Fold this protein.
Amino acid sequence: MNIPYYNDYPEASTVRELVSMSSTRFNQGIAYSYRQRPSDPEAVHVTFRRFAYDVKCLGTAELECGMAGVHCALIGKLSYNWVLCYMSLLSIGAVLVPLDRDWSAEDLADTVKKADCRFLICDGDLSEKAEKICEAAGIEKRIFMSGDCEEISSMLATGATLVSEGDDSFYKAPIDPNALALLVFTSGTTGKGKGVMLTQKAILSNVADALKVNRWGKKMVAVLPPHHTFGSTVGILAVLCCGVENYISSGIRYLLGELKAEQPDMMVLVPLYLETFKRKILSTVKEKKLERVFSAMLSLSRGAKRVGVKKATDKLFSSVLAAFGGKLKLVVCGGAPLNEDVLSFFNAMGITVLNGYGITECSPLISVNRVGDVIPGSVGSLIPSDRLKIEVIGDGDEGEICVTGPNVMLGYYKDEAATAACMDGDGYFHTGDIGRVDDEGHIYITGRLKNLIILSNGKNVYPEEIENVLSTIPGVMEMVVYEGQSRRGAQFNSIVAEFYMDPDYAKDNGISDVKRYLQTHTENYNRTAVPYKKIDLIRVRQTEFPKNTLRKILRFKLDRTID
């Protein structure tokens, strides 16, 4: 299938230029909306023109403070002020270091010190953490974005005064698109994260590619943590560039109410949110005793879509989708693997889910499905600017995915050894992900190199391949596959499946012995699995797996001992 590229969005060379171009192009259109307090009946609306003015004023004040060209830590939840700080700091040539506010004060202080930050901007409710960070890391100045001690508003006023008096330093601040601009510390699902060095050229080339491969909607609700590149590059920069109104959520606890009130037609999400939405829908259906009717509707819709009938079937689910505002049609999903049944579920209801693949070191987007070319199980085809190669491991066509292009990082901050280990002589970044590419260019991710289990007989087992099957067991919320180890560090060649079961599902379905239930389903899997991929031992957790803020499971924190 020949899928078109869209080229009607001009590519910016710097974030400052992107903000200016968006202001000119969309002017009085709404760029951002948000509620000062979650309980407020009406949202505040900020036009593209006003947003550009706010960025200029804040950037002018930041220049007055001496923040140009220096490393600045930004720690906070998603908010209008966070977005302002992100845009203004990059617009004056500062090096931005966005960090997870949920980290401990000690971890934040270590990272801020490692990143050579001189300024700290954070939420007002983090004042105690801020004090510890500043003391431990030798921070020159701290600025609060929110709360009783908010300083961003006074900086905006100061900047507005300077601008009104003819200060044009904002547009004169030098910016090198090829220099370090964004220092992002990875989430470290397999160990301690590293500092990824990204340029404005890398980030903005990724934005341009995101807009080339798909048409976007008119309004979205932003909820992803902004310190991750998926949340900032795709969920903030790309959205601003194409004129979408971006409603900034007050947080996950308010999300469903906001969706109903704001009626977005698109969202940028990680799989966890879609899985949560699916469970909520099915729970409501069950409460109303409509399981059989709903199942029949899904089957009817899937059949109709296969023969090209769409509009009629979309109406079947209008009452269900009303809980999400009734207009949601497009979801761009990334950050973690997406189960095929979740994709199929929402596509049947008239919501197109475009699963993609990316990694922080690539700004982050590498591939994404296209509208009209959604392939179940695939993370789509390569973005236009990149080149890809597969370094085959063993027999077959699977191997490590390697990428080169303008979106690839400069390297890891203060870690030449780690940089050299992942960059080859041809300029390809070795992602550490295992996958394959079909004849039509669709990419399939089958595992993570660091998670690979190599048995004593030389056989390779990709845990993710097994997880994709076992995670479909009804009632399973989360599960991980790994090789069991001795307390002395020895390997047992025993493959362990560890589950976290939905307690409500178990209760509602009369499952008193959860382990026996899971054992039965696992045995069904074992009957058809090749011998070396069979599960030897199952474990049942009473709590969720430890996760980062993108809800990726932190595998390195799991206890794998079985003796």
